[in-house]
Amino acid sequence: MSLPNCPSCQSEYTYEDRSMFVCPECGHEWNEETAAEEGFVVKDSNGNLLQDGDSVTVIKDLKVKGASNPIKQGTKVKNIRLVEGDHNIDCKVDGFGPMKLKSEFVKKL
């Protein structure tokens, strides 16, 4: 099970204490319900709610800087992780490695 990053400082060193998540770097404490209340919601191109660990499909060819080939439409990406920002999906794409994608270019499987 992977724990979510801290919503306050984005630290990856969070730990679980009973029903709360705690960040040792900034001291922020939250639970899963708090994250939903804060408005961190990521939806795919069809409006489906995405969550950590979901699998998605790329809906159009995406050019990649430094790569000779684009990520092709229909490429399946497993075990995504949601992050805040413009590119809000953190994942590994077969043949390309670690990558950040925009949720508007994927659909949930």
TrEMBL record:
Gene3D superfamilies, alphabetized: 2.20.25.10, SH3 Domains
Family matches, as PANTHER family: PROTEIN YJDM, PROTEIN YJDM-RELATED
Name of the encoding gene: phnA
InterPro entries given in the database record: YjdM, YjdM_C, YjdM_N
Organism placement in taxonomy: Bacteria, Bacillati, Bacillota, Bacilli, Lactobacillales
Domain Protein YjdM N-terminal intervals: 2-31
Family (UniProt): Belongs to the YjdM family.
Protein name: Protein YjdM
All residue ranges annotated as the Protein YjdM C-terminal domain in the record: 42-108
SUPFAM superfamilies membership: Prokaryotic SH3-related domain (SSF82057), Zinc beta-ribbon (SSF57783)
Cited Pfam families: YjdM, Zn_Ribbon_YjdM
